[in-house]
Structure formats: structure tokens, C-alpha cells
From TrEMBL:
UniProt domain Glutamyl/glutaminyl-tRNA synthetase class Ib catalytic: residue ranges: 226-529
Residues in tRNA synthetases class I (E and Q) anti-codon binding domain copies: 636-709
Family classification: Belongs to the class-I aminoacyl-tRNA synthetase family. Glutamate--tRNA ligase type 2 subfamily.
GO biological process: glutamyl-tRNA aminoacylation; post-embryonic development; reproductive structure development
Reaction(s) catalysed (UniProt annotation): tRNA(Glu) + L-glutamate + ATP = L-glutamyl-tRNA(Glu) + AMP + diphosphate
EC number: 6.1.1.17
Keyword Nucleotide-binding: yes
Subcellular location: Cytoplasm
Biological source species: Actinidia chinensis var. chinensis
Protein name: glutamate--tRNA ligase
Residue ranges of domain Glutamyl/glutaminyl-tRNA synthetase class Ib anti-codon binding in the record: 532-620
One GO cellular component term: methionyl glutamyl tRNA synthetase complex
Pfam family, one: tRNA-synt_1c_C
Amino acid sequence: MDIKLSFSADSPPLAAIAAAEVAGIAVSIDSSLPSGSPPTFLFSSGLELHGINVLLRYIGRTASISDFYGRDAFESGQIDEWLEYAPVLASGGEFEGACNYIDGYLLARTFLVGHSLSIADIAIWSGLAGNGQRWESCRKSKKFPNLVRWFNSISVEYDTILNKITSTYVGKRGLGKPIAAKAKGKEQQLVDHQTKNANGDVSDKGKAGSRPTFEVDLPGAEVGNVRLRFAPEPSGYLHIGHSKAALLNQYFAQRYNGQVIVRFDDTNPAKESNEFVDSLLKDIETLGIKYETVTYTSDYFPKLMEMAEKLISEGKAYVDDTPREQMQKERMDGIESRCRNNSPEENMKLWKEMIASSERGLQCCIRGKLDMQDPNKSLRDPVYYRCNPIPHHRIGSKYKVYPTYDFACPFVDAIEGITHALRSSEYHDRNAQYYRIQEDMGVRKVEIYEFSRLNMVYTLLSKRKLLWFVQNGKVDGWDDPRFPTVQGIVRRGLKIEALIQFILEQGASKNLNLMEWDKLWTINKKIIDPVCPRHTAVIEEGSVLLTLIDGPEKPFVRIIPRHKKYEGAGEKATTYTRQIWIERADAESVSVDEEITLMDWGNAIVKEIQKDEHGNVLRLTGILHLEGSVKTTKLKLTWLPEMSELVNLSLMEFDYLITKKKLEEGEDFIDVLNPCTKKETAALGDPNMRNLQRGEILQLERKGYFICDVPFVRPSKPIVLFAIPDGRQQTVSK
């Protein structure tokens, strides 16, 4: 059926026009309806639909774009919520507040709902664009970086369509009557195509008709034609350094509407296991990486062996039986191996011995015949294949020879259709080797894109060194909260949203940086503080009983919010009693006749302080002064009621595993081990903490943020809470 979109000229339905254009649904335009009339679809059958959200839902349901109205009923419901929210952007007084809310929501998201463009994105995009110069000012102000990133991404993806619509219907003051078409001046072109560079500065790279620009470009990338891979070796757990590679792959895939695959580089059976495969997949899921498929380098072993034989027959590779140490020395000195000029027939004969894992074959390896005089030592005849009789974790003892990473990676990248291989800059000298091997193989060239390796202060990222801590009992496992593994830092209380923001703030810089943990934990605090519930704990050792003479004869209970500014945190029951517990440090800081504030209750006046012969405070006596002002008191104290329902807590604090910010080259990490990396403190907690779940984050008033590692089981077993750094870390030893 033919469709006519009718509306009032003074209020064009930008979202419906944009959605129809993006979805490829042809509509004719009629702007002759009276002012105040709802936008209407008039079908050639005589049927009509009225109202902007009704029109958007119709477009969403009939569009050929996948999941344009959600992939299931739940996502459709989420989209409906955004359609109902969109009009807030047209309310002058609420515009910036709405921008702030959406900016926070988009912190770790590419789209508003699900993992693809929907009518929710079109509705909010149109609401922003419809504000004309007001929104353009916000884009330039850097106040809403996530919102601007999202807006620019959609603008670039559908630039021709959306630029045409905004130039027709949006003026400097916002939505209004269609604007007469005219040639754009340079200033308007910059507004239409402005993007932000990696530092968040406004950039004018995006001229009309040029290739789309992003915050960081991939060389030679085309929108819709980018395929990336995250290729960990299954020989350990994913750590924060690997996370940068994984998240950057996803970032670029989303930027260019491309794909990411996960490939396990399983070419060394001596180090790898299915346990590590499973843990890596778990960590990749934790990071929120959306990958197309999982592959294994071992899937390509037959083709890799064929390629090795092809290179041998072409004289581009040879079998070498030089002892390993001698080979290394010859490579350093640029001395050719005595086997380098063996005939292809002799090499093929020895290759068969390697495959059979014979005594003779075990003495040999395959090397590429590149250039032994090249100043770049990675090109001095690198090893392509080695014998290894150890069974493989996936395919058992089928093979006795295994390709090196240097040989397998450029081949598998090419045949899997990878367009860009992201590698950390530590591999820079091997880039020339990668390209040369692809050239000798005769496969398609894959672009290498370098980024700086993520190094953290006081942190070891070497799998070998981390394994030492596990094997020597210095930590409790790969998920120990002192470890830089994904499982370790998440167990310690880091939100994945914070990690994503931390890594993307660095971008794909090639500069080597030693990053501070405090910066990451500061970002984390900003995420958890607005929403995590508040509870109370009192350090058990030396705690002091305060008797309120005029306190309640019978305990009573009040239901109060777990977070005064966030209703979603729920409520808790607080019991008020005549006798209450306070911490020894607080008891020692008060004076007779001093007025104090008891948090969540009111003021009280301390009348008597009893001490032992050593000056330690034994007990306090006071009276309530609830009409007193909290503004006049110096001390605001946390407290707990004297009751049997209090829970036992074990508060755990952690420190760095080494005492030096950065190890020097050749320095042994064992020489700088931190002797004190864990501190346990016994405490009492309010009864509401019996309901804490494992992984739940909370704030203990006046103590900081914690994550529940072991929830309540029985009164005799304490709840274990791990302290979450807040960016102002003090070491345990201090």
C-alpha cells in the first residue's frame, strides 16, 4: 500500500520521517494539517494511523531491518519506554537533565536497546536533533561524552539520509516549517559532520562526501566491512591487559558496523588446557564482548601443514636440526644455518620424520627462509614448526608437530577474513615478519593496527609470574582479589562499566603508559556510589556500650531507605534501643557534656565516661537531645543497637602484591614481594545484612565501599566483605 505522512508544518514528526527513510519505507509528505494535529499515516486503502509513537511502532514492525522493534517482547517493551521518554527532550526546562540521564545510561552501551539500531535510537536521536542549535551547543561543550559518541555514530552511519532530513526540517531554533533547500556554506557543513577526536575535541575532518571519520580510525576500514578477532592463548586467565585488546576489538567493530570473532591460539599443548578455554569464555562474557563465533587455530592444523609443505617445495622454508642455543646465537649474529640451502627434497624427507616424531625428526624444526642479514632480527629465518609429543587438549595425540604463533597467526587471520589485526605495540618489530610471511604464503594482506599495552603500577601481568603466585600459595587462586585477572578485579568490586570507560578513555594510543589503579577505582566509585545501599558496622575489638538514660524502654523499629537518594536500593529496618554500640575510636574522641549526632537517629549528650586504669574507655552514659541540630555537632557517629540479632562480619582489605611501581629490566619480582597484602578485621553488622547476596556492593557508613564475597549462612559463620578501593588507596601496611 502507498503511504502518505501528513502533519502540521510547524511540528514535523522528525522521528517518523527519519525512521521511514532509514527503514527504506517510501512515504509521501503532506505538511498541510492544521496546527496541533497529530501526525498521521494515510494508506491507499483508506485506513489511517495517528500519533508519533503509533507510527514508529508500525515502521518498526514492517521494516526489513533486523530487530528494529526489538528481538523479543521484552526488548519491544524497553523500546516503548524510550518512545514515551523521548518527548522530555522537547521540554525546555528538562532538556539538559534528560541529556545527563541518557549520557549515563549510554556509558557502556552502543545502542539504547539490545545490540542493534532500533526505533528507540531514532526517536531519541530525532529529539536531540530537533533542538537545533541548543543540541549543537551541548555537543561542543563536552558535558555529555557518551551521548555525543552515540549521536555521532548514528549520524555517520546514516549521514546522507539524516543530513537531508535535518537540513529540511530543523533550523537553528529547532523543529519548524520545512526549510527551503539551499547550498550549504562551510560553517553549516562543519555542524552537519562534526565528530570528536580521541581526546574529545571537536574535529572538522568529516567534510561532505568524504569517508566517515571516527574518534579513532582504522586504516583502510570501510563501514560494514570490518572483521576483527580477539585471539587469546588458552594458557591462563584473562587479565586487565587482555581486556584492553578485547574491548578495543569490540569498540572498532561497533564503530564500523563490523564483526568480532574469538579465536583461541592453541598452538602450544604444553601450556594450554580446557580449563583455561572455559575461564576465558566466561571472562569474555563478563566483559560484555559480543562475538560472532568461536574458532581455534587447531581447526586449521591440516591447512597449516599443507602451507608448510608448499613453502618447503617452493624453497621458502627449510628443515633445520641446529641445536636451539646455537640457532639463537646464529640468528643474533646473522649467521646462516648450514641447513639453509638443503634441497626441497631433503627438507621434505626430514619434515616427514618430524611428523612421525622419530628420533631424527625430534631434532628438527622448520624455519622460514627470509633474510639472515636484516637488521630486524625477527626476519632472520624465524621458526615455523616444532616437534612436541605432548597431547593437545582438544585433539589429543593426533599431531606431533605444532606451528608457532608467528607462522599460524598471519595464515589464519587471512583465511578467516580478518580485515584488521589489533596487536599491542610490543609486537612492533614483528609486524614486518607478519607481512613477509603473508607475502610468501600468497594470502590476502591483513592490516595490523597497533595500540599500547596496558601496564598498571605495582602489577605483574606475565602469566608465568602470576602462575608462580598461584603455585606457591601466595594467593588463593586465579580469582584472588589481589590479582589483575578479570575474575579477580570483579570479585574485588570493580564494575565492568568502569573498566570499559577506563580503557576507552585511553583510546587506541600507541604511547606506552604506566597507569594508576586509583584512576580506575575513582571511575568505579562514581558508578557504585549513587546506587549502592548503606549499612552500618562497628569494629568488634574494643567496642563500647553507650547507655542512653532516657532512651526507649522497649526497642522500636523504623523502616528507612537503604540509600537516601536512590529509591531503587530498597529499605531496611533499624532498631532503636536504650543501649547502643559505638567504636572504641569514637568513644575515645568524645568529651563529657559534648553533644554528638547518632546517625539516622538524632543528637545526644554524653554525660559520663568510665575508663580503666590504663585510660581505655569502658562505657559511656548520655541522654538524647533529638531537638538538637546536627549542624552544630563535630562528631557524627555510627552505632548499632545492643541486640542478639547483630551479624558477625569479616572485613577484608587488600594491598598490591609487589612494593615497586615498575620492575626494571632483569629485576626479579621475588625481591620486591609485599610481605603484607591482606588484613582481616572482625566487626558487627546490622541485621539487614543477613539478606546480602554474593557479589552485592554496599557502603558501610564512614568506612567505605565493600562487596559481599561470602553471604550469611549461620550466626557462627561471619559474612565476608571485601573492601573496594575508592581511588584514595592506603596500603594495608599503613
